[in-house]
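Deliverable D2.4 — example input (structure tokens):
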């Protein structure tokens, strides 16, 4: 908000990655189908929780305390969920390119793209 309480303008230049992703939601959907395929074997409810946990894990570089705070869960719960993610995704969680793809997809989905 500016000084008179009116909403401040949002500049596309400050959000170019979101603009690009929003311009091609089909590409995001295709990438999501590929990189999130390991989650196909879990229920929709568990999938949502694991996707949320995975994005927090990527965002906070695996640090349990900030992940737990963001998700509103105990750090041991984070450890359990990350263990399950490691079972499902295996080596992909250690691959920088795979992590990049996962983060792009999860952020886009969080923002309603794809």
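Example output (designed residues):
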């Amino acid at each position: 908000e500016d000084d008179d309480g009116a909403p401040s303008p949002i500049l596309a230049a400050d959000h170019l990655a979101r603009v690009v992703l929003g311009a091609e939601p089909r590409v995001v959907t295709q990438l999501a189908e590929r990189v999130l395929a390991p989650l196909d074997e879990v229920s929709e409810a568990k999938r949502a929780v694991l996707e949320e946990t995975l994005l927090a894990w990527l965002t906070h570089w695996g640090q349990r305390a900030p992940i737990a705070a963001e998700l509103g869960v105990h750090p041991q719960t984070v450890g359990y969920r990350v263990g399950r993610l490691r079972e499902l995704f295996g080596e992909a969680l250690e691959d920088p390119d795979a992590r990049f793809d996962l983060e792009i997809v999860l952020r886009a989905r969080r923002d309603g793209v794809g």
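The chain has a mean pLDDT of 90.
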